[in-house]
Specification:
The chain contains 27 helices and 24 strands. With 756 residues, it is α/β, with parallel strands linked by helices. The strands form 7 sheets. Strands 1-12-11-10-9-8-6-2 form an 8-stranded parallel sheet. Strands 14-19-20-21-22-23 form a 6-stranded parallel sheet. It has a two-stranded antiparallel sheet with strand order 3-4. Helix 10 links the parallel strand 10 and strand 11. It starts with a strand and ends with a helix. Bound molecules: glutamine and zinc ion. The site of glutamine (GLN) has 13 residues, from loops.
């Protein structure tokens, strides 16, 4: 009998083989056949890993050459007009990445993960039709290898909920049309085999849905699940509870329901109801989106709790979500401390955990090896819970005894003093921090890390970069300067590397979008700062100019949101520890003569919970810890923050409560429309709305920036505005940055003259 299950598996490859071949294909260095050969090799390997681990339910169609939402749009024939003349792979990749004549489709975050999907575009003018080939082929491919898979699909309600209508109107209006295609697809699937499991992912059910959306669930699943008697449908949700939908789904003819019991504890409330239904429960109990070794004892307790209400025969043990969100395997970690490595588990190791848990839970006999693993698991957890590497008494006491939680003076008092001391003009010009990262720079960092060049050589190279960067800004006529961040490859990793309590993997890549992966650092212990992290570089840069050099830090919430976080302490407490480390850094910077310090919170919005009732708690500690981080700043030290987005309507009061003196934001693409909310709520602090888009290589003209500045002035007075690009410049080339910034400064000059 089948007892265990994986929602989905990473596809990028243990050595990021897919990334490499994709990029080589895009560069026209590999053919499409070569790309497909790698893809087939990877699929095969991934299926075999799952099979060898003893998984009963292994997925097909969890693979993708770019993204599963894009695949779903493709399956439905939802091709935006601007791409309709193209075919096959050219069509597919143009939709994802754009081409010479057409912009790419939008991309956005997959729920509260760091994975980004392609946003489907729907329009009444288009007609949809089934293209089932990928799905059918992948099933057959696995079957030919002797592996019977379940088929993964993104569900129609999630698909529509995440799509956008380009012709105005509601995506859900297309439900009937799209269901017809799903039905046709099910027809094709049903002839593949005598009995087939179809996993339909509906993560949108884990959010707060309008009654109107909930009302679509029953008719949809009545239709789909009654169509083909040989197809068992599992509706799977994850990242939160989905109780509203569960209550409905249990009265449809689906076969099973997948629930996440780790990030959606409230799912426990549905157990009795599930038991009285005829549904299988795919119980997500192994964390699919974090890196910690499963605590077998605890998980068995959780499963027993579930089994106290749901008959054991109905339970199938599963990952909490697709393992897409975890790194691939610990096999390649050669430099990590053996002790820490023993606390971790990546996707491949998670398969073994699922297998072992199901054996334990269903009381199958364990062989000697499995018994030793259970014992080792307990030992690893004991070791972790008692390790001195994790528990830092000083940090814990400091968190408990912190009394100074915010800056002492009010904004009004601070800004008055700052304007006197810093003496900057209205519409002061600055940048967000990073300057172009050149190949030489990346090589220098890499060579230093690999001990190929000396510390001295490394510092010389960094200082040369800073010299050039500072000179360049002086020449441009910018007013508040930055050092350019040459020493950082990533705004979180850089700080993580210098904080105690942080660990790093060599190969812990997680797909972020398309061929892009990130390698988040992980927080395993109490966080402390052994020594200053940015003071040397910043003071060096300051020594090269009479102008104000802005210090550059990453804020606690962003550091937390872009790391894997320990699971033995509340996120809010980890965040507090980071905040204290940052507050020490601010103090060191100001003591070293730095007068303006920017604390980036690029990922502040990313941490928002999926469920509305959990938002106030998040906002409360996120704001608390930003304020704690900057609490050490003197009145006259000006604190800036930066956020990489423009939609502040829902969160403007929270942003205001963070109480930064200046916030720079990403408004370049929305004109002054999104700025208006700042005015509406009477936002007092200063604002630097990005005046040009750094995400494109395009150089904005002086006129264009003048127009942009004037439109900002329609909303906020000049005394409240700063002028800057809308994000860091590190992905751009100097040839683009130079004229752009010159034009920006020139535009400010023109507007200031006109205002005189
Ligand atoms: N200071 C960082 C930079 O300029 C901010 C990056 C970001 O907002 N993502 O690169
Ligand atoms: Zn940004």
């Amino acid at each position: 009998m089948s007892k265990n299950y994986v929602i989905g598996f990473p596809r990028i490859g243990e050595q990021r083989e897919l990334k490499k071949v994709l990029e080589s294909f895009w560069a026209k260095e590999s053919s499409f056949e070569e790309l497909n050969a790698v893809a087939s090799k990877l699929k095969r390997r991934h299926w075999e890993y799952q099979k060898d681990a003893g998984m009963d339910f292994i997925s097909s169609n969890d693979f993708s050459l770019y993204d599963n939402m894009l695949d779903t749009a493709f399956m439905l024939g939802a091709i935006p007009k601007r791409f309709q003349a193209l075919e096959k792979e050219e069509l597919y990749f143009s939709m994802a990445r754009g081409n010479k004549t057409s912009v790419a489709m939008e991309m956005t975050k997959w729920f509260n993960t760091n994975y980004h999907y392609i946003v489907p575009e729907l329009s009444k003018e288009d007609t949809y039709k089934l293209n089932a080939s990928k799905i059918l082929n992948e099933y057959k491919e696995a079957k030919a290898l002797g592996i019977k898979t379940k088929i993964n699909l993104i569900g129609p309600i999630t698909f529509l909920g995440l799509s956008k209508r380009v012709d105005g109107g509601e995506s859900y209006e297309f439900l009937d049309e799209i269901l017809k295609i799903y039905e046709a697809l099910l027809g094709e699937i049903s002839i593949l085999d005598t009995a087939i499991t179809l996993q339909i992912d509906e993560p949108i059910f884990a959010m707060d849905n309008e009654p109107k959306v909930l009302s679509l669930i029953k008719p949809t699943y009545d239709r789909l699940a009654s169509l083909c008697p040989n197809i068992n449908i599992v509706v799977s949700t994850y990242f939160e509870h989905s109780n509203e939908a569960t209550k409905i789904l249990l009265y449809t003819p689906i076969w099973g329901i997948g629930l996440d019991f780790l990030y959606g504890e409230e799912n426990m409330k549905m157990l009795e109801l599930i038991n009285s239904s005829d549904k299988q429960l795919i119980a997500g109990v192994v964390d699919g989106r974090n890196i910690w070794k499963n605590n077998i004892t605890k998980t068995i307790q959780l499963l027993e709790k579930i089994a106290a209400q749901v008959h054991k025969d109905k339970i199938i043990i599963s990952s909490s979500c697709s393992l897409l969100h975890s790194p691939f395997s610990l096999n390649y970690e050669k430099t990590m401390s053996a002790q820490i490595k023993n606390w971790l588990s990546f996707a491949k190791e998670k398969l073994d955990e699922i297998a072992l848990l199901s054996k334990l839970f269903f009381e199958e006999d364990l062989n000697a090896y499995e018994q030793s693993i259970v014992k080792q698991n307990a030992e690893a957890h004991y070791d972790r819970s008692t390790s001195v590497m994790i528990h830092n008494y000083d940090v814990q006491t400091r968190v408990k005894n912190t009394t100074k939680q915010h800056r002492e003076a009010s904004y009004e008092e601070r800004i008055k003093l700052q304007k006197e001391v810093l003496n900057y003009k209205d519409l002061a010009t600055t940048t967000i921090g990073s300057f172009p990262q050149t190949v030489e720079l990346r090589d220098a960092r890499k060579n230093f890390k690999n001990k190929i060049i000396s510390q001295e050589e490394y510092e010389t190279q960094m200082k040369n970069y800073i010299d050039t960067c500072v000179n360049f800004q002086e020449e441009c006529g910018l007013e508040v300067l930055v050092h350019g961040e040459p020493e950082r490859n990533d705004m979180v990793e850089y700080f993580g590397e210098q904080l105690d309590g942080y660990g790093f993997s060599q190969n812990g890549w997680v797909q972020s979008y398309g061929s892009r992966c990130v390698k988040p650092p992980f927080i395993y212990g109490d966080i402390s700062r052994p020594k200053a992290m940015t003071v040397d570089w910043t003071t060096y840069a300051q020594s090269k100019t009479q102008k104000i050099m802005k210090g550059m830090l990453t804020g606690p919430v962003t550091i937390l949101n872009w790391s894997f976080v320990r699971d033995d302490l509340a996120r809010s407490e980890v965040s507090q520890q980071i905040a204290l480390a940052i507050s020490d850094e601010i103090d060191d910077l100001q003591n070293a003569g730095i007068k303006i310090i920017q604390v980036d919170e690029a990922a502040f919005k990313e941490g928002y919970p999926l469920r509305k009732n959990k938002i106030p708690a998040y906002e409360a500690w996120a704001v608390r810890d930003f304020k704690l981080a900057v609490s050490s700043a003197w009145k006259k030290t000006q604190i800036h923050t930066h956020m990489c987005y423009s939609q502040f309507n829902d969160i403007i009061k929270t942003i205001e409560a963070m109480d930064a003196d200046v916030i720079s934001i990403e408004t370049a693409r929305s004109g002054n429309k999104l700025l208006k909310i700042f005015k509406e709520v009477g936002y007092k602090q200063e604002v630097g709305p990005g005046v040009y888009d750094i995400h494109s290589p395009r150089i904005p003209s002086v006129d264009e920036i003048v127009t942009q500045i004037k439109s900002l002035l329609e909303v906020l007075p000049k005394e409240q505005l700063w002028i800057n690009p809308d994000c860091g410049l590190k992905t751009r080339k100097y040839e683009e940055v130079k004229p752009s910034l010159l034009n920006m400064v020139e535009a400010v000059k023109i507007v200031r003259d006109e205002l005189k």
